[in-house]
Amino acid sequence: MNQAALQVAKAKKILIVEDEGDICLLLNIILNGEQTDIDHVNSIAKAKTYLQKEQPSLIMLDNKLPDGLGIDFIEYIKQHYPAIKILMISGFGTSARDLAISNGADHFIEKPFTKQQVSQSVQALLI
């Protein structure tokens, strides 16, 4: 197996659930080179459809989505796909952090975030 094929085989799949295109682009740029395979959806409904076909190692989940709150979606993910790690990203501060963690999120990053916060969180969750 050649080097490129080995890297693809080792790549961890990440699903970004975020409706803001700029944030998705920024996350893609930050995670480029982290041996990850990144997919993106912009709603909870599309995330549910995606999860019926794919099993990512990590979901990066925004809270405010067009069809609901990511915080409420955490319990669904953990109930149906307990092996998937969840990194909640929200601009709603401490109250959102506490609720996300109590609902089952593995980690929380507050917007605005830094490249270092994202990279360190993703690396820690994908070990």
Structure commentary:
The protein has a single domain (3-125), classed as Rossmann fold, CATH 3.40.50. It has helices spanning 3-10, 21-31, 44-53, 70-80, 93-103, 115-125, and strands at 12-17, 36-41, 58-62, 64-65, 68-69, 85-90, 107-110. The protein has 127 residues and is an alpha/beta fold. It is built from six helices and seven strands.
Summarize the structure.
The protein contains 6 helices and 7 strands. It is α/β, with parallel strands linked by helices and 127 residues long. The protein has one domain: Response regulator (Rossmann fold).
What attributes characterize this protein structure?
alpha/beta; two-stranded antiparallel sheet; single chain; Rossmann fold; five-stranded parallel sheet; 127 residues; globular; disordered N terminus; 6 helices
Topology:
Layout lengths: L2 H8 L1 E6 L3 H11 L4 E6 L2 H10 L4 E5 L1 E2 L2 E2 H11 L4 E6 L2 H11 L3 E4 L4 H11 L2
Parallel strand pairs: 1-2, 1-3, 3-6, 6-7
Antiparallel strand pairs: 4-5
**Secondary structure tally, helices:** 6
| Main sheet makeup | 5 strands, parallel
CATH superfamily: Response regulator
Strand order of the largest sheet: 2-1-3-6-7
For the record, give the distance between the C-alpha atoms at the N and C termini, rounded to a whole number. Answer: 23 Å
Sheet/helix structural class:
alpha/beta
